[in-house]
Amino acid sequence: MSWQPELDELRRRQEMTQQMGGTDKVKRQHDGGRLTVRERIERLVDTGTFREVGSIAGKADYDGNNDLVQLTPANAVMGRARIDGRHVAVTGDDFTVRGGSADATIKEKDLFIERYANQFRVPLIRMIEGSGGGGSVKTIETTGRANVPGVRGWEMVVNNMGTVPVVGLGLGSVAGLGAARLAATHYSVMVKEISAMFVAGPPVVNRLSPRQFDKQELGGWEIQLRAGAIDEAADSEDEAFAFARRFLSYMPSSVYDLPARGPITDSPDRREESLFDAIPRDTRKVYRIRPIIEKVVDQGSFFEMGRLYGRSVVTGLARVDGWPIAVMASDPMFYGGGWTADACQKVERFVDTAQTFHLPVVYFCDCPGFLIGLEAEKSGVIRQGVRAMSAMFQTTVPWCSFIIRNAFGVAGAAHQNGGRLNWRYAWPSGRWGSLPLEGGIEAAYRADLDAASDRKAKMDEIEDRLNKLRSPFRSAETFWIEEIIDPRDTRKILCEFVEVAAPVRGMGPSTHWMRP
Prior knowledge:
Elements (H helix, E strand, L loop, with lengths): L3 H15 L4 H9 L5 H8 L6 E3 L4 E5 L5 E6 L2 E8 L2 E8 L13 H13 L4 E7 L6 H7 L10 H8 L4 E10 L1 H7 L3 E5 L4 E3 L3 H7 L6 H5 L1 H7 L4 E3 L2 H13 L39 H8 L6 E3 L7 E8 L2 E8 L10 H16 L4 E7 L6 H5 L2 H13 L5 E10 H5 L9 E4 L4 E3 L3 H8 L1 H6 L3 H15 L2 H6 L12 H12 L15
Parallel strand pairs: 5-6, 6-7, 7-8, 7-9, 8-10, 13-14, 14-15, 15-16, 15-17
Antiparallel strand pairs: 1-4, 2-3, 4-5, 11-12, 12-13
């Protein structure tokens, strides 16, 4: 006797689960412009590398003789694979089976893949569509009871945030626990016009609200990107997969590794003449920061994250002489580069990501301070600002700052970890202090101005005198700024920084790893 009957039975069951929710449900998925979960995995990972785990898990129907009639798969497909040759853990919701809801969920599958990523120290990619295993009203009928809310296994989600890179791809309507799983990542992507994310979808919200919403009005990509709930929106699912692969290319496999040096494709001696005039002499004029970043890092390597959220600060990953780094830069096109409450939250999250995965931080600072005014105060900007500054002061990764124009007040002081040695440079355009002269003169010299026969002439006299005193060269004389450089030398200095920083990036878990 051979084991062929058992092997045939295994193959029969696998063929059933490969059908997912059935031909009609697969067609509905395609008609909605979405791939199936198996098509998604195939396009995301290296060809032929996916090894499924739990391939025949699901709900089985048996006849009177206890012979299998039909096997409906669990609504999650997961396993291990490779991306760019590196081991990863992959899981995806199958929306063709009960819309990804709890009624078709085998919770142990979700727990398994989270534990696998954590214990074997490999990046985790979640492809999410549906409620992601959360409960539904119909669950009451199928189970005969109402469950007490709980998220079994969430401790693994939290632990993974401090152990391995986690990517979330929202590839359809994502609600409830599915939305939580998408948000609990280091990098998240939605697909324009296809994806939507919400705590509760339109059927629930519209029942309680006089205003009626469709999916995009309630939780479309623009809403979630501007709210900071996700990091990026892709034009297609294939572009979302490309974003995920690129993000992971800057990351180590886990906190127990270091980010690997990539190919050296750009000369460390490259000198950009345009940087000399990049900052206007007129302080009222703005400029574009992204071209400056692009000219300093390895060409084509800048990978921005969170572009539409906290827009006065630009954040992203890049390479310098092949080494992965975390880049942060002020954007004077929005609030003059001043820190808003959402910008502070963005900074905190980004700095914590860099700290978690041992990425050196490079900051191009042009910060006139916190946003001021009634609305700023209502937003709790100082509380959020203190959190962001505290995150900086908790970092142990190497840090290099370039003050390219403004550094004023508490927010301006938050350009480095002041408790550690950092590399810090100023461009000749650098200007700093407790308060900008504009507005500050009125407060500090009110008596002199009120007594003057010509108020404007007196104002000009005071401003000219103070401008000479606050020259960056005066600060350099007393070593309050370590070095003033020619802007055209910035790339060369950065290449030197990443070389000396590489051996001291540290390894292992951070004492304050990133929270979502």
